[in-house]
UniProtKB/TrEMBL annotation:
Region Disordered: start-end pairs: 88-109, 413-450
Basic residues: compositionally biased ranges: 413-422
Protein's name in the database: Phage integrase family protein
SUPFAM superfamilies in alphabetical order: DNA breaking-rejoining enzymes
Length: 450
């Protein structure tokens, strides 16, 4: 089937909402008015005049039927007949509608409008995006800040059009502006790959050699955001404070620090992922940022935490280990952050704990950098290196995590040892009595003897 035909899909017809003309090919258009109504129209030229033949409302005429009606009308036009006149002679109900104004760019371009094509592109790509928030951000930035591009065919968008979209937010919200520019560039590249844009052509949203000369260049500091981290030197004291808090969320935060994992990896952990006997946590690829399955060796303290939690649950394989107040739901994304705020450390972040882990390993140990990076579930080397290195250095990482646990536990161990050296209150009281009582008893004996 030629690419210029059957561009729409039933789902697209249902989800489209922005007013405009959406071509299916062969003269068939979906027309969405400003009041939200949707109708089918077949357009053609006869005697140097444009005609629009209504084919009915979308609610009454499905896409397949509209294509059949358009194909029949198109054949009449090819045969030299006027489709609207032919329908009148056969007594069909749909009268000729007065042609509505169509943007000049739509008349000149056979390519799809940017808005509909962007929606179609997101629909095809979002299956590979694990984060639902990321999917929604794509749509929101395009519809909110790229609104002026929505009704322009993809092959006639210019550099000026892109600059007009980016300029108002380039300084006020630079992060959003930068992401929007990249998304526009990707969508237009996809349109070119889909043969909706003929060459020679240069992407008007491209940064290097193009927009870099028209928009203020942001410094590196505005592009990189570091997560505030507790200095690793202070973490043993922090762990000691954390263990005094009995709440489940405190255990979740301690667990996250000990395993050097991301917030979402911890909170969405299920009992099916854990093997307590082997002290291993297997995180599925679809839950990892890099999309690669990750095995995590569990330190003794982590196993202890999990066994304590297991006492209060049936450990159903599908349930979350750190379950929230709502049954079947994990603790909220903000729960561990709130712990930091309650103990007056809200200026630090949970994700920053991973940075503290990295700093400690780099400055205080001799563990290889590649092993540390694998413990953080980061990609190591280029694609060729990863193709040959298929192991995950699990045994080395077990030793590394044992080292990390020992460091974090250092203050707690000293505290226990100090308590062990101190005699219980009853023993100290008895000793005090003996120490002071010896002289008292002797005094009494002397008095009695006299």
């Amino acid at each position: 089937m030629p690419r210029s035909m059957h561009k729409l899909s039933p789902r697209r017809v249902t989800t489209l909402s922005a007013p405009g003309w959406y071509g299916d090919g062969g003269g068939l258009y979906l027309r969405i008015k400003t009041d939200g109504s949707k109708r089918w129209a077949f357009t053609y030229e006869r005697n140097k005049r444009r005609h629009e033949m209504g084919l009915g409302a979308v609610v009454d005429v499905p896409l397949a039927k509209a294509r059949e009606e358009a194909a029949a009308a198109r054949q009449l036009w090819i045969d030299g007949l006027d489709p609207i006149e032919q329908r009148r002679t056969t007594g069909q109900a749909e009268p000729e509608r007065k042609p509505e104004a169509v943007p000049e760019t739509v008349k000149q371009s056979g390519s799809p409008l940017f808005g509909p094509f962007a929606e179609a592109y997101i629909d095809t790509q979002e299956e590979g995006w694990k984060n639902p928030k990321h999917r929604q951000q794509w749509r929101n930035t395009i519809k909110t800040h790229g609104k002026s591009l929505l009704t322009i065919p993809v092959d006639v968008i210019t550099v000026d059009d892109v600059v007009a979209v980016l300029q108002p937010i380039w300084r006020s919200t630079p992060e959003t502006a930068g992401r929007l520019r990249g998304r526009i560039e990707n969508i237009l590249d996809a349109a070119k790959a889909s043969k909706h844009i003929a060459g020679p052509w240069e992407n008007p949203a491209r940064w290097r050699g193009n927009l870099i000369h028209l928009l203020h260049r942001r410094g590196r500091k505005s592009q990189v955001r570091h997560h505030p981290a507790i200095p690793f030197e202070d973490l043993p004291d922090f762990i000691l404070r954390l263990r005094r808090r009995p709440a489940l969320v405190a255990r979740a935060l301690e667990f996250t620090i000990l395993c050097a994992t991301r917030t979402n990896e911890t909170l969405r952990m299920t009992w099916s992922e854990v093997n307590l006997d082997d002290a291993v946590w297997n995180v599925a690829a679809d839950r990892m940022k890099m999309g690669v399955e990750h095995r995590i060796p569990l330190p003794d303290r982590v196993v202890e935490i999990l066994r304590e939690i297991a006492k209060g649950t049936n450990c159903d394989p599908g349930t979350f280990v750190f379950e929230g107040q709502k049954i079947g739901k994990p603790l909220s994304q903000m729960s561990m952050t709130m712990v930091l705020r309650r103990i007056k450390l809200g200026h630090y972040t949970v994700h920053g704990m991973r940075s503290a882990f990295r700093d400690y390993m780099g400055e205080m140990t001799n563990h290889p950098e590649s092993v540390v990076e694998q413990a953080l579930a980061h990609q190591i080397g280029d694609e060729t290196t990863r193709a040959y290195r298929r192991g995950d250095a699990f045994l080395k990482r077990r030793a590394l995590m044992k080292d990390w646990e020992g460091y974090l536990d250092s203050k707690a161990v000293k505290s226990k040892q100090a308590k062990g050296r101190r005699k219980p209150d009853s023993a100290r009281l008895a000793a005090s009595r003996n120490h002071h009582g010896l002289g008292e008893d002797l005094r009494r004996e002397i008095v009695t003897a006299s």
